[in-house]
Design a protein that fits this description.
By secondary structure, this protein is of the alpha/beta class. About 25% of the residues lie in helices and about 30% in strands. The strands form two sheets. Strands 1, 2, 4, 5, 6 and 7 form a six-stranded mixed sheet that branches. Strand 5 and strand 6 form a beta hairpin. The longest helix has 16 residues. The radius of gyration is 17 Å and the shape is globular. The termini are far apart.
Length: about 200
């Protein structure tokens, strides 16, 4: 006998409730992106976890470590193809650092206390039907307290990631520092070998 649990979506009065926010100062994060494009691109992509089609602005997804960035970027392809990555796409991707001395108000969904106050569980954030986590992303992005973003756990590595919301003045607070193309990084070769991933 199968047992199903309720899918928890934002409450009807979500926008009337306080939104728990933490202050993060001095961002020093990473992003993998197409080498022909700037790292600082806020985008709305319906295949991304928190990017609701009706969101008021784009999101910028960042990782706190290189391995998590690689899994977040290529995880679906790796799992869908039996541990293979398209060689041309791999070669066209670049790792950049995103830094800022500014203070950002972040809804930290990696904290149990925050999730409890929001009546949110991890299964909703990692739900395979993206309309569930996207509903949470839209609710947090549209809340009157205007969070600068949300922090969440990678469903591949379990380590923290950050999704910044596109708001007036946010991009001006950020600085991108190009590091290298993926094939030129020793860590990426280790990633391929350690996970038995083939470039095709």
């Amino acid at each position: 006998m199968s047992v199903s649990r309720p899918i928890r979506l934002p409450a009807a009065d979500f926008y009337l409730r306080p939104l728990p926010l933490n202050e993060f100062r001095g961002l020093d994060l990473l992003r993998i992106h197409g080498a022909k494009y700037p790292a600082l691109q806020f985008r709305l992509n319906e295949s991304h976890r928190f990017s609701h089609p009706e969101a008021p602005g784009g999101l910028l997804y960042l990782g706190e470590d290189r391995e998590t960035c690689l899994w977040e970027c290529f995880g679906e392809e790796i799992l869908n193809t039996g541990s293979m990555i398209n060689r041309a796409i791999w070669g066209s991707r670049q790792l950049s650092k995103i830094t800022s001395p500014a203070v950002f108000k972040i809804c930290d969904l990696t904290e149990l206390t925050t999730r409890r106050l929001l009546a949110l569980d991890l299964s909703a954030l990692k739900h395979t039907e993206l309309d569930v986590p996207q509903a949470w992303g839209l609710a947090i992005q549209g809340h009157p307290e205007k969070a600068d973003g949300l922090r969440y756990l990678s469903r591949f590595t379990g380590r923290p990631c950050l999704a910044l919301f596109e708001r007036a003045g946010t991009a001006a607070k950020l600085k991108e520092i190009p590091l290298a193309l993926l094939p030129d990084l020793d860590e990426t070769e280790h990633f391929l070998v350690a996970n038995a991933i083939a470039l095709i």
